[in-house]
Design brief:
This protein is mainly β and 158 residues long. The chain has two helices and eleven strands; from the N terminus they run E-E-E-E-E-E-E-H-E-E-H-E-E. Helix content is 9%, strand content 49%.
Length: 158
């Protein structure tokens, strides 16, 4: 394993069946039975066969635990066949959809990485502390949607 790619946060590569409900980029509502690619304390990577926008809200239900949670689309991690692997983060940090105990993180482990980023709309630069999902989306897309104080809205950062 490449030590540069080793994650400090607990992530499990596991396919868990889930039901996802949300809105496509066309704003059409969809419901899809799919599965996870990776799960973590903060969210998951989900294989979804619909095009989604960053920051879109999804409902994720895990039939095996009977639990449901709201998630925010962080972005596309990769494409797989006719679908996309999306990184999603729970809107409630206390969600445990999988009934898996993840040991508490140290302060260093809470931060996936520190990156100097620039807003593509106004050019504002800032040092951003990104979580593991945001880092993965940034690595895959070379860009990340984030709020910009100067633009007073969410913009694309590189």
């Amino acid at each position: 394993m490449d030590p540069q790619r080793t994650r400090r946060n607990d992530r499990l590569s596991i396919a868990i069946p889930v039901e996802v409900t949300g809105r496509e980029v066309t704003k059409d509502v969809f419901r899809e039975n799919t599965h996870t690619v990776v799960v973590s304390r903060h969210g998951a990577a989900l294989l979804i066969h619909h095009r989604l926008e960053p920051d879109e809200r999804l409902s994720v239900r895990c039939p095996s635990t009977g639990k449901e949670a709201e998630a925010r689309v962080v972005g596309v991690v990769s494409s797989e066949g006719d679908g996309y692997v999306y990184g999603v983060a729970w809107t409630d940090p206390n969600v445990n959809l999988w009934n898996v105990h993840f040991p508490p993180l140290t302060e260093v482990e809470r931060i996936g990485g520190r990156v100097l980023m620039e807003c593509t709309s106004c050019g504002r630069r800032e040092l951003a502390h990104l979580n593991e999902l945001e880092m993965e989306v940034l690595e895959g897309n070379k860009a990340l949607p984030r709020p910009c104080e100067q633009c007073e809205r969410e913009t694309i950062w590189k």
